[in-house]
Amino acid sequence: MRAPADLPLEIGAPLPKADLVLQDCSGKEITLNKAKMNNGLLVMFSGNTCPYIERNQLRTQEICKYALSNNIGVVLVNSNIAAADEKAILTAMKTYATDQQYNWYYVADKKAELADAFEANHTPECYLFNQQAKLVYKGAIDDNPGNAEAVKMRHLHNAINDMLAGKVVKVNSTMALGCNIKRF
Q1: Cα gap 87→113, rounded to integer Å
Q2: DSSP notation for the chain
Q3: Tens-digit pLDDT profile for residues 38-80
Q4: pTM of the prediction?
Q5: Rounded CA separation 95/101 (Å)
Q6: Phi-psi region of 101 (alpha: psi -120 to 50; beta: other; left: phi over 0)
Q7: Tens digit of each residue's pLDDT (9 = 90 or more) over 90-135
Q8: Which of 23, 47, 60, 151 has the fewest CB atoms in 10 Å of its CB?
Q9: What separation in angstroms does the CA of 176 have from each of 21, 27, 41, 98?
Q10: CA 31 to CA 34: how far, in whole Å?
């Protein structure tokens, strides 16, 4: 029998690893619980170098700003760092976050603990939690991570709007496409 921590992260599941201390690229230590704001938390697995991340830079900035403007905390998670020099990685993450004008947390997931707990496999891959820290959406930012001009459905934006309106999120799970998160 599987332990509760090993069960799939399904819609309605509580925020996993909520008190795990994470290193933000600014040098500050945070937890997901501390990053959560009154209307919830958006956790997005990301990185500095994935071509899908590069193609989604503007969309990442827009959705993160939208979440923050609606009192939803934002944490971007870099899990592709296990075999690297932590100080060098944090410096590269800080440079990237500054270049991208991030004003939200961008944390290192050195042992891929968050990626494992969330069952995240791609960058970008998004998880939206409501006020009660229950999962209401998981998946892609939109329906075309490879081509911004071809987007027809903005899944994460719609999920945020449904959640803020007190509605059940219509499309609560989509397939995330992108670079694989590497477990070393």
Answers
A1: 18
A2: ---GGGS---TTPBPTTTT--EEETTS-EE-HHHH-BTTBEEEEEE-SS-HHHHHTHHHHHHHHHHHHHTT-EEEEEE-TTTTS-HHHHHHHHHHHHHHTT--SEEEE-TT-HHHHHHT--EESEEEEE-TTSBEEEEE-SSS-TT-GGG----HHHHHHHHHHTTPPPSS-B----SEEPP--
A3: 999 999 999 988 899 999 999 999 999 999 999 999 999 999 8
A4: 0.93
A5: 10
A6: left
A7: 899 999 999 999 999 999 998 899 999 999 999 999 999 999 999 9
A8: 151
A9: 26, 29, 18, 26
A10: 5
Distance CA(14)–CA(108), nearest Å, equals: 21
For residue 124, whether the previous peptide bond is cis, meaning omega lies within 30 degrees of 0, is: yes
Q: Residue 162: pLDDT band by 50, 70, 90 thresholds?
A: very high
Q: Which neighbouring-strand residues pair with 75? A: 43, 105
